[in-house]
Amino acid sequence: MPEPVYISVILPLKLRWVPSYRVDLPEEGGAAVPVRGTRVSVRFHGRVYVGVVSAVGVTPEVGLSKVLPVEAVEDLPPVTEEELALWEFIADYYLCSVGEVYQAAYPSLRLKEEKVALRRKEAAALREVRQRDSLGARLASLELRSDKKRAQISRLKPTGKKYEQNKQLYENQLQVLLEQIDKVRSLLEALGHPSASASGSPRAFLPPESVPQLTPAQQKSKEEILKSFKNNKITLLNGITGSGKTEIYVSLALDVLASGKSVLYMVPEIAMTCQLEYRLRQFFGERLLCCSSLMTPAARRDVAYALADGPYVLLGTRSSIFLPHRNLGLVVVDEEHESSYKQDSLTPRYHGRDCAVKLGSIHGCPVLLGSATPSLESIFNCMSGRYVEVDLKERYWGDVSSELEVIDTIAERRKRGMVGSFSRKLIAHMHDALEAGEQVLILRGRRSYSPLVQCGECGSIPKCPHCNVSLSFHKDRNALICHYCGYSEQYHVQCAECGGNRVFLGSGTQRVEEEVSQLFPQARVARLDGDSLSSAQAVVKAFSDGEVDILVGTQIIAKGFDFGRLSLVAVLQSDTLLGQEDFRADERAFQLLGQLRGRAGRRGRGSLFVIQTSQPSHPVYGMLDDAPSFVNGELLARRDFNYPPFVRMVCLTVRGNDPETTSRNALALASALRREFASGRAADKAGTGAAPVITGPCAPPVDKVADEFIRQVRISFRRDASLAFRKRRLKAAVEAFEADRSFSGRIVIDVDPI
Questions:
Q1: What is the pLDDT of residue 346?
Q2: What is the pLDDT of residue 578?
Q3: Which of 108, 224, 318, 431 has the most CB atoms around it within 10 Å of its CB?
Q4: d(CA 39, CA 115)
Q5: Residue 648, CA atoms < 13 Å, CB-side half-sphere
Q6: CATH number of 209-392
Q7: d(C-alpha 161, C-alpha 150), whole Å
Q8: What is 561-609 written as a DSSP string?
């Protein structure tokens, strides 16, 4: 009997190592040794998992007698080498296990369902082949009959009584044959049959009017992008809102499809795919595929299998990077500044934009980042020469006025100029816009009817029993709801403590929607927030089609939508955007306000942007028309105070069921890390370098979520040659701390926290 072969298998588990298994080879013939990427069934701690072979011919770390055999080699599509390379990068960079990345890439993995889906796809492919063959044979027969009919017509002698009669008959028969040929060719074209068109390129399936016509400014930017692709594959398109970045993306994608390669087109929010899919469908037709986290595992597998069928354009959110891309020719990351690209709830806590950049490197294809308000990280990369910046500063519909008005709500209240959440000035602007047949967009950064409810007698505020946060009132459900863990309870007007009447503090999107409906009873009002995502597609379409006059929403409404009749955008209680305990608060507020301002004034229309605030003199408002000054000021402050992008930051979150134990664990972890990175203890590759800065432990603003208490330790690393080494040392130190029997709880590592 031949010697067994030992392989390493990635399991969908959080493991500090990749376990080894044995492949027993038959004496003669039989199955071959599974190669890297093959999916196999193996047993681990009594359970059977579908794993992925990561290495062949390894030497097990345990005794050979303890190495379990492979249960089965699964007849499933293997994980590609490009997928494995991305997994390994994410595990290394974000300091997690490759098994956790496997879980994220293949969610809800069920072997039986996947095999059924594969058989279904194979059956469909077989039916398609048979259909193509049948239609091809019919087309050949019809073309032969039409040729014979033409010959029959040509042989007719133009004399005799029956000439005209026979000619008309034969021509009618020929016309029927030609119509049948056109129908068969249309069916074959839909199936992608090579005989259906003179050209096999994707452009052959596009009507000429569907190809976007670029303005001179857009064409210049496209040429600069193509030039940068030749020298530096990572390019940042810094285009103002309304400049037509989407048209440039489409034009580049069409060129890539024409070359036989595929395109990944990423967007930050699921809601954005609703409007964008309709726009892209007219250019790419059936070659457009869509993927998001809302898809069922079965639907996601169908998309994954469809990627193997030739060139495509995949429109997806951050999780689309995990699909088995083939022959990528371009990666586009739209609205690259958006924090939604960062996974902040589950491990691995990866950033979709940064992983897309790595994905482009793995496939050897260019990467295009786009935004009207680029992140400081991307601007820093442009300044350091890693990225190439291309500017697009002309609006597609030409320069139009975009006025900014900042309304002091404190002063308005003193003059009794406020009606609920609205100033009388804003109400007048809304009335003028509606009278002119224009649309209005209103941002309120809080969903619910009221963020807080308080007793008017004793002052008590209902709080979540599982989280250290107040409950928000949702009028449509008549319930108090926690926005962190989802806990809810029935709302009662009377206080549970003293029996006094409760009052609402502040307003959320539901209350704003109600106020708008009362102020403008004839207007058609809709709402788009986290509570209405299920109907997001319908709401966006209705507003785009002019069926809604006023749209109320949270930050979702600022992300890349194109509304032609929108002339007035207003922000209510904008102070909540600036009052966050985060060094990125000003940057985020600047980006959000800039994006919102750009939603209006398209199609050559003027626009008005209104901000209601109690801090009208805040510097962010004064710099909305001077982005370079804001960026330079923020970068100088970040450099002086050692914040990203000048350092790399890692946040360690210690979670536990007891507050005192969690605090002790966090303190012990911080002490252990300080010892680990003390001078001379953890020498880097160069043997020198400043030690990382360790702060904490401290409690975040919300220090209890879902019955778990939270403490945080932050570490800042210098961006130098020793960065990767020190991050690995950090991971090893955390794993050693977790392995200590005295530790109870869990530690979450978040690299580059947002």
A1: 85
A2: 82
A3: 318
A4: 12
A5: 18
A6: 3.40.50.300
A7: 21
A8: ---TTEEEEEEESTHHHH--SSTTHHHHHHHHHHHHHHHSS-TT--EEE
Q: Identify the pLDDT of residue 401.
A: 62
The values of phi and psi at residue 333, to 5°, are -120, 100
| For residues 493-514, average pLDDT | 90
End-to-end CA distance of the chain: 56
pLDDT at residue 524, rounded to an integer: 93
Question: Among residues 464, 255, 441, which one has the least CA distance to residue 365?
Answer: 255
352-386 residue pLDDT tens: 999 999 999 999 999 999 999 999 999 999 999 99
pTM attached to this predicted model:
0.83
Provide the token pair at 117: 């889906």
Query: For residues 508 and 367, what is the distance between their CA atoms, to the nearest angstrom?
Result: 39
Q: Tell me the chain's radius of gyration from C-alpha atoms.
A: 31
Q: What pLDDT, on the 0 to 100 scale, is given for residue 370?
A: 95
Show contacts of 614-620: CB within 8 Å, 24+ apart: 614/408, 614/409, 614/410, 614/575, 615/575, 615/578, 616/406, 616/407, 616/408, 618/578, 619/586, 620/578, 620/586, 620/589, 620/590, 620/593
Distance in angstroms (rounded) separating the CA atoms of residues 150 and 156: 10
Whether the CB-CB separation of 512 and 572 falls below 8 Å is answered with yes
Q: How many CB atoms lie within 10 A of CB 686?
A: 10
Determine the angle formed by the axes of helices 659-676 and 723-739, rounding to 10 degrees.
140
User: What token pair was written down for 285?
Assistant: 């037709």
Report which DSSP code applies to 210.
G
Q: Which CATH number fits domain 402-449+507-639: 3.40.630.30, 3.90.1710.10, 3.40.50.800, 3.40.50.300?
A: 3.40.50.300
* Structure confidence by residue, pLDDT tens digits, 549-596: 999 988 888 776 777 788 899 999 888 888 777 889 999 999 999 888
Q: Cα separation of 63 and 449, whole Å? A: 63
Domain 5-109 - what CATH class? alpha beta
Tokens of 488: 């809810």
Burial of 519 (0-12, 13-18, 19+ CB in 10 A): middle
State which amino acid sits at residue 600: A
| E-strand stretches of 102-252 | 234-239
What type of residue sits at position 108? S
Distances (CA, A) of 83 to 16, 54, 77, 90, 564: 20, 11, 12, 11, 40
Kindly state the tokens that stand for 193.
Answer: 């049959």
Are 332 and 267 within 8 A, CB to CB? no
Determine the pLDDT at residue 397.
Answer: 65
Alpha-carbon distance of 374 to 382, in angstroms, equals 11
Residues 330, 731: contact at Cβ < 8 Å? no
Q: 168: buried, middle or exposed (CB in 10 Å: 19+, 13-18, 0-12)?
A: exposed
Average the pLDDT over 303-331 and give the result: 89
Identify the sign of the CA torsion 406, 412, 418, 421. Answer: positive
Phi-psi region for residue 364, left (φ > 0), alpha (ψ -120 to 50) or beta?
left
Of the candidates 108, 115, 106, which has an alpha carbon nearest to the alpha carbon of residue 87? 106
- pLDDT of res. 204: 40
d(CA 694, CA 713): 7
419 DSSP β-pair partners: 422
Backbone angles phi, psi at 683, to 5 degrees: -70, 135
Q: What is the CATH number of domain 647-751?
A: 3.30.70.600
Q: Omega before 645 cis (within 30°)? A: yes
The confidence band for 679, taking pLDDT boundaries of 50, 70 and 90, is low
